[in-house]
Every structure is written in structure tokens, then in C-alpha cells.
Amino acid sequence: MTLDPALPSDYLVGHVEDALARDPRVTEQGLRVEVTGIDHVVVVVTGVVVDPGHQVAIAEVIAELLPAAVVRDETTVADYPERDDPEVVS
Amino acid sequence: MIRVAAVGDIHLGAGSSGTYRPRLSHLADHADLFLLAGDLTQRGTEEEAEVVVSELADLPVPTFAVLGNHDHESDAAEALVDGLREAGVQVLEGSSVLCRVGDCTVGVAGVKGFGGGFPGRCASEFGEPEMKAFVRHTERTARDLTDALGSVGSADVRVALMHYSPVADTLKGEPCEVYPFLGSYLLAEAVDRSGVDLALHGHAHAGSPNGATPGGTPVRNVALPVIRRSYRLFCLDEGHLHEAAGAGPGLHRHQ
């Protein structure tokens, strides 16, 4: 499915966020999407993904929805240190 | 010029008999059509349905309604729909009507709608079957609205009637945490796709009266606690919306 890039940006945001949540290549629920651009659609994605492969897939999924869009992936990959200072619960 | 009176969330209970109809005594002086945006009952019981039917029977102008979530609470919505039909009120659900008012034709398409939220904070069809069913219901009702609006595409004026909101504008005043349970942007997309002149909804008692879809269609929250009068009036003239300050006997609250 492709989206009409002339749709109001709110609708493009909603559909791109939905695709990133549902598409089995991504399935990231918490990403934020912003659609900007005057002459051409620019899709900015922010948030944290759990796997570097998801960043590749984000570009693929958006390219399928909006083939002419420029994708700016500003997501980061989750990298959490192992906690070593225990909380003392009294 | 078409004059539309609209209200939602009248929430008539078993003890409301005789209390609502007097509020409509001047309806024919003000309006050519009367639209009800759901939650006609409090708990959707058959007893409440009888009250609603009695209060709305044989109104002097064509009257159309959608149901709301309260009207489904007791699994007796069919009795309400049947009773209203016999009383001259047509309930729209994924359906539409075409009326002639003077030289104009007005098409009214109605769905209950459903939740799901708005861009930036949307539910997605992912995870548990219950979550998927929730989102699919919204997607289906948005498709139904598109189809219903398409079937009155020849009308001079088109109105979309919903219970749930198509936009977040008219939810302002409600806690933002509950927005996903108050409406969905998919309804707005159906409205914009179809070239609607006015979109009406209820459901958000603490919301705001006025908003617009991303495509610029006027959206009005006509929930009774928002409009604080028996109905709100709209005049539609070949796509131009003129709004009266209000009509009907003043403040009228139900919970």
C-alpha cells in the first residue's frame, strides 16, 4: 500500500506510525513520526529501537508507503548497561 | 439554506419520561432536520429505550440518529433501533439518507464510530486479539462512514454524524489520557476523503464545541453538557456553515 503524499500531514503521521508498529520487520510501538517538507515529504522518525536491523527496516517500510519521501531516521538503538548499584529497599 | 438542529448524549433514563419532549417544542420553528449524536440512553435497557422512543416519537422534522456506547451497554440496541424506526426516527449505522429541503438536497451519513486515538498517540492492530479487535472495529467503522458518505455524493450538502470524535480539537477539556477512548483520526480521514460540509459528534462531555479536521472540515461536539442547551443550530448554504448561538430552552443537564 502506498499513501498519497498530498494527504494532510496528520494522516501521514498516523499511517506511518501505525505501519511501524504493525509491520513484522519493525514492530516498534513507541516511535514518534513527524512529517515535514514543502516541495517533498520528509519523514522524521525518533525514539528508541531494540535492534539495529529495525533502523534498516524503518527506511524500507516508509519507502514502501511514501516512495518519494526523504526519511530522516533519528532513532537510537537501546543500549542499557547492566545495573551494578543495587537499590536498598527498607 | 438548510437548518440543522443537533444534540448528543441526552442520556434519558427510566425516570426521564415526559422530561425531554418539552425541550423540543419549538424544533420545527428552528430546524429542517434534527440529528442525534448517540447516547440516547443511560444504560441501554429496554425500559430506557421505551422512554427514548416515547420522547422522540413523531417529531415535526425528519430526525436521524446514531447510537452511542451507552446505548449498547445492555445488549438491547436492536430494540431501541426498532422502536425509534416505528416512531419515525431512523438510526444510521454505516448508512445514509438523502433529504430534500426546499431547493437543496442534504445527505446525512452516520456511524457510531469508535476509539483508537490521534496521530502521535494511536492504538495499532498489534499484539493481543483483543487489541486487534479494538482497532479493527475502528477501521471498519471508518470504512463504513466512507461508503455511507459516498452513497450521498450527489447531495448539495453533506453531514457526517458520529458519536465518537474524529478530531482531538473537540476533546480539549478531557484528560489527554482518555483521548484514545474518545475518538479516532480514521473518522476524520473518512470525512476529508468524502468532501463533507459539517461533521458532528458527541461522547466527550468535558470537551470543546468547535474544531476542524486536518482537511478543514468543521467539526462540532454537540454533547449536551458541552452545548448546554436543548440543541445547537447550524445553517448550511451550499457548503457554507452559519451557526446560530443556540436554541431551545436553555441549560438542560443529564448525567
Verbal overview:
The complex is a heterodimer of chains A (90) and B (255). With 90 residues, chain A is an alpha+beta fold. Chain A has a single domain, classed as Histidine-containing Protein, Chain: A (2-Layer Sandwich), CATH 3.30.1340. In chain A, 31% of the residues lie in helices and 23% in strands. Chain A has 2 helices and 3 strands. Chain A has a 3-stranded mixed beta sheet. Chain B has one domain: 4-Layer Sandwich (Purple Acid Phosphatase, chain A, domain 2). Chain B contains 6 helices and 14 strands. Chain B has a 6-stranded mixed beta sheet with strand order 4-3-2-1-13-14. In chain B, 51% of the residues are buried. The C terminus of chain B is likely disordered. At the A-B interface, helix 1 of A face helix 5 of B.
In short:
The complex is a heterodimer of chains A (90) and B (255). With 90 residues, chain A is α+β, with helices and mostly antiparallel strands.
What structural class do helix, strand and pairing data of chain B support? alpha/beta
Ranges of chain A where pLDDT stays below 50 over 5 or more residues in a row are none
Question: SSE string of chain B, helix = H, strand = E?
Answer: EHEHEHEEEEEHEHEEEHEE
Return Rg of chain B in Å.
Answer: 17 Å
Total strand segments of chain A: 3
Overall structural domain count of chain B: 1
Overall pLDDT confidence of chain B:
93
What's the number of helices of chain A? 2
Give me the side-by-side strand order of the main sheet of chain A.
1-2-3
Oligomer classification: heterodimer
Classify the fold: give the CATH topology of chain A: Histidine-containing Protein, Chain: A
Sheet with the most strands of chain B? 6 strands, mixed
Overall 3D geometry of chain A?
A: elongated
Strand percentage of chain B = 25-35%
User: How many structural units, i.e. domains of chain A?
Assistant: 1
Output the number of helix runs of chain B.
6
Strand content of chain A: 15-25%
Number of strands of chain B: 14
Shape of chain B: globular
> What is the CATH H-level superfamily of chain B?
Metallo-dependent phosphatases
What is the highest CATH level, the class of chain A? Alpha Beta
